[in-house]
Structure formats: structure tokens, C-alpha cells
Write a structure and sequence with these properties.
The structure holds 2 protein chains of 2 kinds. By secondary structure, chain A is an alpha+beta fold. Chain A is built from 15 helices and 17 strands. By secondary structure, chain B is α/β, with parallel strands linked by helices. The chains are: A alpha+beta, B alpha/beta.
Chain lengths: ~450, ~160
């Protein structure tokens, strides 16, 4: 979609006297959608930070009520062009929970491979085209490509390799149609999957080289005491399933999500803000996964992370850039292993009798935990639906990041402060299209 | 119109579940299914979908003429407009339906990174829409009515060469 009205990025100041200042940017580029970020600074203290996201009311219940449980994955996957696999998987998990289905073995491996493809394509897009320009001082990927075309090319090629996985397993790269509750409509043959290997092997090395390169970037100093929230799996770096854990000791079944998290509205935004009940803001996404599940990364991924200067705990949100590259490396490595060890399943999906039930499902979308809940009746008709995307969950933490960044923003010239604030928002790769559609940014100093 | 006498790639952008944002996809569907488009003509056309603008970059690498079809936020809704990539440069209409890489940027990026292989002819046909306010399938009547006009515009610009 194109916009003739708001399409500009820039800053404007009103008041630059001692201790007070106002900065405003009308359109925040390189994040999806539209919203407005307002930062009011008094001296080096933020007196107000508002990330106002214009979220369409989540009429998922109306959207899905009356439809068959089998349709939920496909319908919800069309909410976002970047992370359809996350929606497919969380919806399948929820329906499988309702029906008592377990997807394991070769089918589970195929589901993980599909998700690895999405992590690769989504992370590569964000790292190379959206976030790296911030660290190198370029206004956008196009300008960066004039000086660093080779790296942008590598990023796009990695993204293409991720898309190829999704395309092969999902039936098409855009919105996968081969995924169903219980597995797949058709399982690929081993020779089909093996056609992916050369690019995956190249991508693994390219991810490693990119991590080495970007580790040399200058990272703003900011340490935040987040409550990290992510899935944790006993045997692997959690992607498709697991228990929901946090750095503050939470350890729950996904079914208990509603009991431990709450959403509320704020007057300046129509998007919902998530909180841990009784505690407040939390962070999901790559940084949370890295901190909570570092021990589940493969040894080579761990070694490359450490060589890039990362360690646990990693509390600097700007280093999420590097964490995404570690996850790309891990996803390429796992994809290769899954294909090399693949034996087609006896049947492409697991089925079960339909029953009236409520199902709960979650998975680790590239940006963080994506929660689905559905109630279905005895015929499998959806009665109720709830979806909580990761961007909504991270909104409060993004605001808190900007408040913590206030001393630096106050000390920087207007344009640099604006750029730094935008960069800080992009640390979390907000996928506003999952939560809303458009974003604008304004910073005020008074 | 029997044939165009050349290869054409039509690429639609948009989200099916975001109401009028899906108008590009509807244009593609019209091309694919309506009898107004002859089989011979259809055989000259590659119909493709890009889920977000950065996905355009590899799709623009073709010797065929390319037409990108997208929704565009502007009033009144239901108008069909045509742009050259240069019109979408900084200061012009800014794409909003990608993760921050717009249609204009994606085309410029493709031209910068793969100047030898990018299509020599890229044009954009957009249908104006109001801001989608909820997740829903299907187009509003006024935008749905613009779909055949967008198809006509595509053929017009292809015939102009």
C-alpha cells in the first residue's frame, strides 16, 4: 500500500532552551505500519513516552466465528506477509491441542524446517534492509547498498534461501497452502528437500560472515533489566512449541497464558498493551530467546555468538541485531541437519475425531511469542478466538527502552536523537501489520 | 485484444485479510479468471504475488515488462492511478505495506544491485483505498468496482509500450 500524505521522515524541533526540547518525526520508516511515538524530555529525563499504535480492533472472534477449525491456520496466516508460518503454526498448535493431536517425528521436523525458513527470511530482511543502515549511519537500505552492495546482496540471497524452504514445504512462498491441522497435505520427498541444500550451506557461511562483520559495528550503550519471556523446549532451541518461561521465574503451560498475562488499553493508542499480571512490562523475541535458551543453541552457534561479543545475560537491546544473525545461523544449521536426516513420514498428517474443546497454542514468531486460543464446538465450528501478537507484547518495553535512553537523546543534536530513537524502536522489529498498519514517530522535548 | 506480442509479469502486493489492502490480489484474480482475458493473452502473462515489497527485488529480475499492482492510501477510494518508479522516489508516495522497504525502494534496490537483469520496463498501477480498519476478507464495493478499471489500465499501459 502506498501513502501520499504521511510519507516523509524527518525531525522538527520546538524549543531548544536549557532543559527543554521538542522533537517530532512524522513518519517512522523501516518499521511496518503506522503509529506515533512521542517522547517528552525534561532535561535528560523522559517525562512521557507514548508508542501509539493504531491497531484495528481485534475482531478475530467475528473474523473466525462460524468457520471450520480447519480454516483457522489459513485464515490467520494472511494477517501478515512476513510471518505467515508463525500464524499457521500457532493456529495448528491450538487446534491440535483442542483435538488431542501430537505432531512429532518427521512431521514435527518438517514443521520446524518450515519455521526455520520463516526465521531466515524475516530476520534477513530486518537485519540487512531495515536495521543495519541505522548502525552504519545510512537513511535506508538503498543508500547503504551504494557503499555495501555486497552485504545487501548477501542478505537478500539469505532471505531468498529462507523463502525457498517456505515455498517448497508450504506449496508456495507467499502464503503457504500445504499446511493443515495435524501436519501437511503432502510431505515432500527427500530429493525435493535436497535441492535446497546448496543454498542453505551457502547461507550458513554467509550468516557466520555477516555476524563477524556486524559484530564490529558500534552499539549504543544501554542495559535494560527486562523480564524476558519465551518458549522453552527440553530438547531444542524453542521455535514451534514449549513451555512459556520468563527470567523472573515464570514457567507455565501455554494453556495458562491468559491467567498470567493481561492486556489493557491506554488513551493514546488503540493497540492493547500486554503485561505480566502483577509485574508489568516484559520482552519477547530474539533477545528473550537468546537469554532464556542460550544453552539450547548448538555449540557452534554459541561459539559464534561469544566470538561476536555476545553472552548471557545480554541486556542491550541494540545487540538484538547480532542475536538475529545467531538465530539465522542456527536456523540454517538446523535446516541442513533436518534435510540430511529426513525420511518421509508414513502419512502427511495426524488426524483425530472432532470434539468440543478449547485449544491453546503458541510458537516463537521471528519477533516473539505468538499466542492463539480457540473454542470449537462438537462439529469443529469456531465459537471464539483470541490472538496476541508479539509486537503488542513488546510495546511497553519499547517505551521503557526510550525512557531509559532519555539522557542520551537529550545530549544528542536533534537529528541524531531522532535517528537514535527510531533505531531503538527498530531493535524490536515491530511488525505493526500484525497489530496495526501504520506508524508515525514524534519526539518532544520541553 | 488477441495478444500483446510480448512477455509481461504482473506482480500484486497486498494482504488478503486486510480488506481493501487486497485489491492488488483481486486484480490478479480477475486477470486469471475472467473471460475478458483470452487464453493466448494469459499465456503471455506471468501472474505473481509479493507478500511485501522487499520480495519484489528478485521478482523484478526478468526480461519481461513488469507491472506492479498495489493498494494506495488516498482519497477518494476506488481511483486507479499509474506511476513510474521514479514517482515513488523519496518525497513521492511512500509505500506502507512492507516492513519498511517500500515499492519505490525495492525497485531502486533491484536496479542498483542487479542492473543487468532487472526488467527494462517497470510500472505501478495503484488503486486508492481508505485505511483498513479491521481484519476482514473481501473488498469494499467502491474498491471492488475499481478492479476491472485497474485491469483495463494495465492493458492500456502495456499497449502503449
Amino acid at each position: 500500500m502506498s501513502d501520499t500524505a504521511d510519507g516523509k521522515a524527518g525531525g522538527q524541533g520546538n524549543g531548544n532552551g536549557a532543559g527543554t526540547r521538542t522533537i517530532q518525526v512524522d513518519y517512522l520508516a523501516r518499521v511496518e505500519g503506522e503509529g506515533r511515538l512521542k517522547i517528552r524530555l525534561q532535561g535528560d529525563r523522559a517525562t512521557e513516552v507514548q508508542l501509539a499504535i493504531f491497531e484495528p480492533p481485534r475482531f478475530f472472534e467475528a473474523f473466525l466465528r462460524g468457520r471450520s477449525f480447519r480454516e483457522a491456520p489459513d485464515i490467520t496466516s494472511r494477517i501478515c506477509g512476513i510471518c505467515p508460518v508463525a500464524y499457521l503454526t500457532s493456529a495448528c498448535n491450538a487446534m491440535e491441542d483442542a483435538l488431542g493431536i501430537r505432531v512429532e517425528g518427521a512431521l514435527g521436523a518438517l514443521r520446524r524446517l518450515l519455521y526455520c525458513g520463516e526465521w531466515i527470511e524475516s530476520h534477513a530482511l530486518h537485519v540487512f534492509l531495515l536495521h543495519a543502515p541505522d548502525f552504519l549511519g545510512y537513511p535506508d537500505a538503498l543508500t547503504m547498498a551504494r557503499d555495501h552492495g555486497e552485504w545487501v546482496q548477501r542478505g537478500l540471497r539469505m532471505k531468498k534461501a529462507g523463502n525457498a524452504i517456505v515455498g517448497l514445504l508450504g506449496g508456495r512462498a507467499v502464503h503457504p497452502v500445504n499446511v493443515r491441522v495435524g501436519g501437511f497435505y503432502r510431505a515432500p520427498t527427500r530429493p525435493e528437500l535436497e535441492t535446497l541444500l546448496p543454498e542453505l550451506r551457502w547461507g550458513r557461511e554467509a550468516a557466520a560472515a555477516s555476524l563477524e562483520w556486524m559484530a564490529r559495528f558500534s552499539f549504543p550503550r544501554l542495559e535494560r533489566d527486562y523480564e524476558f519471556v519465551a518458549l522453552r523446549h527440553p530438547d531444542e532451541y524453542a521455535i514451534c512449541e514449549g513451555r512459556l518461561v520468563s527470567s523472573a521465574g515464570l514457567d507455565i503451560d501455554v494453556r495458562d497464558y491468559d491467567g498470567h498475562f493481561e492486556e489493557s488499553q491506554v488513551p493514546y493508542s488503540n493497540a492493547l498493551h500486554s503485561r505480566v499480571r502483577g509485574r508489568g512490562a516484559y520482552l519477547c523475541g530474539p533477545l528473550a530467546r537468546f537469554n532464556l535458551n542460550f544453552d539450547q543453541l548448538w555449540p557452534e552457534s554459541q561459539a559464534r555468538a561469544r566470538a561476536a561479543g555476545l553472552d548471557v545475560p545480554c541486556k542491550n537491546p541494540f545487540q538484538a541485531l547480532l542475536v538475529r544473525l545467531v538465530e539465522i545461523f542456527q536456523a540454517f544449521s538446523e535446516s541442513i541437519q533436518i534435510i540430511e536426516g529426513y525420511a518421509p513420514p508414513a502419512v502427511p498428517f495426524v488426524d483425530a475425531p472432532v470434539r468440543a474443546a478449547t485449544g491453546y497454542g503458541g510458537s516463537e514468531a521471528p519477533r516473539g511469542f505468538l499466542y492463539h486460543r480457540y473454542a470449537i464446538d462438537e462439529s469443529g465450528t469456531i465459537l471464539d478466538a483470541r490472538i496476541v501478537p508479539p509486537t503488542s507484547q513488546n510495546q511497553l518495553s519499547i517505551e521503557a527502552d526510550l525512557a531509559a535512553l532519555a539522557p542520551e537523546l537529550a545530549a544528542l543534536p536533534l537529528a541524531e536523537a531522532t535517528a537514535r530513537a527510531e533505531q531503538a524502536v527498530r531493535n524490536h522489529d515491530p511488525c505493526i501489520s500484525c497489530a496495526t498498519h501504520f506508524l508515525q514517530l514524534a519526539i518532544e522535548r520541553e | 485484444m488477441a495478444t500483446l506480442g510480448k512477455r509481461v509479469r504482473v506482480i500484486a502486493l497486498g494482504q488478503q485479510a486486510a480488506g481493501d489492502d487486497a485489491v492488488g490480489l483481486a486484480v490478479l484474480e480477475w486477470l486469471r479468471t475472467r473471460h475478458a482475458v483470452s487464453r493466448d493473452l494469459l499465456e503471455e502473462m506471468e501472474l505473481m504475488v509479493a507478500p511485501e515489497a522487499s520480495a519484489l527485488v528478485p521478482l523484478l529480475e526478468t526480461t519481461a515488462e513488469v507491472v506492479v499492482v498495489d493498494a494506495m492510501l488516498d482519497l477518494p477510494p476506488g481511483e486507479v492511478r499509474e506511476f513510474a518508479p521514479e514517482d515513488l522516489a523519496r518525497g513521492g508516495p511512500q509505500p506502507m505495506s512492507s516492513h519498511g522497504v517500500g515499492v519505490g525502494q525495492a525497485i531502486a534496490l533491484a536496479r542498483l544491485l542487479a542492473p543487468e537483469t532487472v526488467s527494462p520496463s517497470i510500472r505501478i498501477v495503484a488503486v486508492t483505498v481508505m485505511r483498513p480498519e479491521r481484519y476482514e476478507y473481501g473488498l469494499s464495493p467502491v474498491v471492488a468496482a475499481a478492479v476491472p478499471r485497474a485491469v483495463e489500465r494495465i492493458f492500456e499501459l502495456l499497449m502503449r509500450g
